[in-house]
Each structure stands twice: as C-alpha cells, then as structure tokens.
C-alpha cells in the first residue's frame, strides 16, 4: 500500500466540520458561504438536468463554457485566450491541480511551494514524485522576499505551485512580488502553476493580476480557476485551466484519465453565470467585504488581534500578543468544545517550522451567524 497516503491525517476541514456538528458549534472553519448562490445560475443547472444535458460532454469541456471562460478573462483580466487551444474544463480546481502535477513533473523534480499552503498541495506534489522546496511566509505581512526565493530555487526546480489571492492568509500579492517570482521562474526555466480560485473574492479595490499577464510567463504558466468560488457554490466542482497550447496538450492527457469530463448541466449553468453583468460580481464582492468588516470589528472589540485580509472568505487573528500560553490547535479545540465556535488553526497549513499562533475564521456567513459566533466567543482577554 502507498504509505504516503495511508499515513496522511484526515484533512483539517473535515475534522473541524465534524467537531462543529458534534458540538452544535457555529462553523467558521471550512470555507463555504451560508448563501445558497445565485438563483438564476442554479435554475439554469436544474433546467439543464431536466432537459437532458446528462451524457458525456466533450473531454475538453462544453464549447460554450470554454468560450465563456475566454471572454470572461478577457473582460476582467485583459487576457487574450484562444478558447479552442488554451482553455480546458476540469472537475474543480482540485482536479486541475492534481492533473498539472501528474502531467508536468518527473520523479525527483523540485517543486517550490509557499507555506502556509492549501492542504492538498504537498501530498499531491509528493505522490507525483516531486521534491518540495518550501518558502515560509510569516505574519503579519506574509510577504515574498528575494532572500526566501533564492533559498528555495535550485537548478533542479521544475515547477512552482503558487496561490494568489492566498488561502489561508487572505493576501493579494503585490505587482512587485509577482514580478520577482516571475523572474525566478524564467531564470530557472520553471513552469508556474498558479491557483487563482479566489480571483473574484477580492476587496478594497484590489485588482487581480493573473500569472498569464506577468512578464515572460504567458508561455510557461498554468492558470487555474474555480466556478465554486466565483459563484459561492463550493460543491460545484467546475474548474478552468488556461495555458498556452503546448502546455495544454500535456495537461489534457492527465485530464482524460483523471475524470475525462465534468457534469454538463453544471458547465452549461456556469457558462451562463460567467456572462452575468459586471455589477453582479462587484455587488457580491461588496457584500462579502461587509461581512469581513463585521467579523473583523466584532473580533477586535472582543480583544482578538485581527490581521488584515484583502481577499478570500477568510480573516486571521494572531494570538501571539495575547500571551495565552496555548497554541492555535489547542485554542481551536477549546473554542469548538467550550464556546461552540469552529475555526481553523493555521499551523495545519505548514509542513515544517509552523507558525502556531494564527487562527483562521470564515466570514462568508449571514450577519446572524457572525453575530452568534461573536456572542459565543465573548472577550478573549
Ligand atoms: N485551491 C484553493 C487555494 C482553495 O482554497 C480551494 C477550495 N477552497 C481549492 C483550490 C479547491 O477548489 P475546487 O473546490 O474548485 O476544487
Ligand atoms: N477550501 C476550503 C477552505 O479552505 C475547504 C476545502 C475543503 O474542505 N477541502 O476552507
């Protein structure tokens, strides 16, 4: 049996959601919204199921969705994508990530990763035979520095797996940091796999900058998106992969034997949704930003040191200044069992040299849910 997978612990999201159910806790752990998602998009999917969009669609995705993805990114990110040669639909960003790693690395190749890291990355890299080289980001600013990148890149670097906007920190990396990373990728002839699933969940007027727009990266990067995040329906596993034709040919070979296709009714509805008016996307952001501010204010009034969050469904608190003499995992355990509020310890996103003082809360919830969590938490001082 494969010992790597046999020895993996259950993901922190599943563990925390189970604890939340057992303790009837308000679940601000796993990232999913209270809101059921846009009704018109859900109706499109329902009608498509009823009207028979239920057989295998084309392997690369429904043409209408591939074109909708190219049009959407042209409008929102100024990208020029050939829908036929440069866009593929996958069953969620997770499939796209797994496929990219299977397709693009050989055993022994080095892969640069950034901690805290989304929990699926490291096991997928390792199972594909990659050797992880970890760049450690730390609170409160989580910046990318030239020094840290120099230590991680070597002549064996083949691939860089990056996430922007970043889960769990809520960071949007600056143009300067992105250009620095691009320079390292070019210098070491590495492919950049850029997980951009949070590209629309971005606040305070930030503008998402795709890897495909970075100098010299158009031909050597893979952009990954997710309809689950764009429409706030996380169970909808519909992912988008965009890459230059040469890379896409290889990526499509992994896709054909991982899932081959993605449910066509969902693809049809997502194609419709991507064309929704600009204001729908901006209003959705504004609504989430309001929820972020509500939770941030409540937590700071209760004495929690709140770190800035510019994107995603998440904000973090750093317990270090409170000198509570307890680490993030123990704090989350106590919160869920004694206070009835679930959150995620950020140390779970580190493979080594973990930061053990930061706790992640999901704010994509109704005001009533957030207020209930705040009332239960009380003052931390
Ligand atoms: N990457 C990141 C950074 C994520 O946060 C998530 C889900 N929260 C995913 C990938 C998975 O996306 P999907 O559900 O489309 O597989
Ligand atoms: N991406 C979600 C989060 O960060 C959870 C994904 C999952 O449950 N695997 O909370």
From TrEMBL:
Q: Give the keywords, sorted.
A: Aminotransferase, Pyridoxal phosphate, Transferase
Which cofactors does it use? pyridoxal 5'-phosphate
Q: Tell me where on the tree of life, at the top rank, the source sits.
A: Bacteria
Gene Ontology terms for molecular function:
transaminase activity
Q: Which InterPro entries match?
A: Aminotransferase_I/II_large, Kynurenine-oxoglutarate_AT, PyrdxlP-dep_Trfase, PyrdxlP-dep_Trfase_major, PyrdxlP-dep_Trfase_small
Question: Which ranges carry the Aminotransferase class I/classII large domain?
Answer: 26-377
Q: Which Pfam families match?
A: Aminotran_1_2
Q: Which NCBIfam families match?
A: PRK08912.1
Q: What is this protein's record name?
A: Aminotransferase
Species of provenance: Ancylobacter radicis
